[in-house]
Here is the input.
Amino acid sequence: MTLDHLHGNARWADLERLRSGNPMYDATIEEIDGRRIRVGEHWLADFASCNYLGFDLEPEIMDAIAPAVSRWGTHPSWSRLLGNPVLYPQIEEQLTELLEAPDTLVLPTITHIHMSVLPILAGQGTIFLDSQAHKTIYDGAVVARGMGATLQRFRSGDVEQLTELLRAAPAGQKLIAMDGVNSMTGNAPDLQIFAAIAREYDALLYVDDAHGFGVLGERAANESSPYGTRGNAIVRHSGETYDNIVLVGGFSKSYSSLLAFLALPTWLKNHLKVAAAPYLYSGPAPTASLATVLAGLTVNEKRGDSIRADLYRKSTKVLDHVRGLGVYTPNVGSTPVIELPLADGQDIDVVGKLLWARGIYVTLAAYPLVPRDQVGFRAQVTAANTDAEIDELNAVITELADAGMLRR
Here is the structure.
């Protein structure tokens, strides 16, 4: 057998060219200093991190690792079906309270969840997949299709098309799969509308809020920002219950830890304990991750809302600047995910090198990671970014806008 078909594949040509020739890709980061990173001798302000709350640099959270490792070792490697360090039930108990959910189940990663749990939930029924849903949700849906499910896609946010598809679907399990806060646009769906449709057609709404958990939370009269309070994700931010909703989220973004979860009914949690491969077979999260999740939940309870207020201030400082320049971003709200499509996608290499030269590190969004008409870059603001770094980012955005490289 040969692998010659992998060479010269036109679909990946643009990305391979950037990987091999643009310093913004495949970089080896040798040192960090706050939210600055060093690659070789070059220092850059980091706007490619998803550590929205800055918990990766929080001393109280880092200090929790050594005592936990001293007690549990570096990696309690039982599968969860066999044995759970008490850290697991502690996390699930606190998380269930935070989310105000019926129950929660933690597994190693969101990708594990999509690839294993989504096919179980879909069964032999129909998956209605938002066209802008994250690639890992799509991959899980494809696995489900291979196991007998039917896969149908609907235009992102198009309630009428989704309703038509649901109405025409045959009897059987119906699963609507979509993002919460979208990883590229930074926008959140109108969850109340989709939840109502799911209940009307007896469908299950499966929502991946990886980028919303820790940032968005329930609304309150005393909230410190429009993000809401507590950072307990899009379901509570929308004032919704968990009826007909399974929420998927992760700690790898806002909480800077390797762990993911589902918010779900207890009966379903117990079923997944004997049906979901990551619970039965996968090596669990390392002790350091379990310890930092628990410490992160404590920090969130003590001062999470003040951190989110600062994150909101910094995010709107960038968004207001972008909008003031007349530059287009699909982010119509105030989340810290700021995508900037290019006027001409062919400029992606030039733009990446200019950002690098100006000391700004971002996520380059090249084809086929995004459609050709969405090629550009994504800046992710975190609470750990300084105001000086925000000013540096805004200055480069101005330079790119003045050069006509950003979409108006």
